[in-house]
Design a protein that fits this description.
Blueprint (H helix, E strand, L loop, with lengths): L3 H8 L1 H11 L16 H24 L11 H6 L1 H6 L3 H20 L9 E2 L2 E2 H20 L4
Helix pairs in contact: 1-7, 2-6, 3-6, 3-7
Length: about 150
């Protein structure tokens, strides 16, 4: 079981990666490498929407002592919304949103006592969420690092 400090440090790794992407010229931002696969912009918008969702539906509620507003998640349905959302955004705008939401999440998570990280809020546990999304981030960062072209 990782400590709050370790979890937050690892969860924040994405910010440096996103800032690196901002500094690079990416010609195929909205182009998928294969039919049925996401483009880099789609991956980033997917991360933005998840961060926004968990910030507004779970983390802020926990911090404010309110019930977590997460019901049964339909992951595929939720993820499908990411593609059209991302297509409307320019690269730097989308990266700025991703950085903003991740920083907001980290700020709010930092203010929640470590004892609350392993407490169950319905089906939501902060430590489990962080561990899952750290791996999720790493998966997508590796996909982007190995991007063809």
């Amino acid at each position: 079981m990782r400590s709050k400090d370790v979890l937050l440090s690892e969860f924040g790794e994405l910010i440096d990666f996103l800032q690196l992407l901002k500094s690079q010229e990416i010609k195929n931002w909205h182009e998928s490498p294969k039919k049925g696969k996401w483009a880099i912009g789609d991956i980033i918008s997917h991360i933005v929407l998840w961060d926004e969702f968990f910030l507004k539906k779970a983390i802020l509620n926990i911090k404010d002592g309110e019930p977590v507003a997460i019901k049964e998640l339909k992951f595929d349905e939720f993820n499908k919304k990411a593609v059209p959302y991302g297509k409307k955004q320019k690269k730097d705008e989308l990266l700025d949103q991703a950085i903003k939401y991740r920083k907001l999440l980290l700020k709010e998570l930092l203010e929640i006592p470590e004892a609350c990280y392993h407490k169950s809020y319905g089906k939501f546990v902060i430590a489990n969420y962080l561990e899952t999304f750290i791996e999720h981030d790493r998966h997508h960062m590796e996909q982007i690092r190995c991007w063809p072209g």
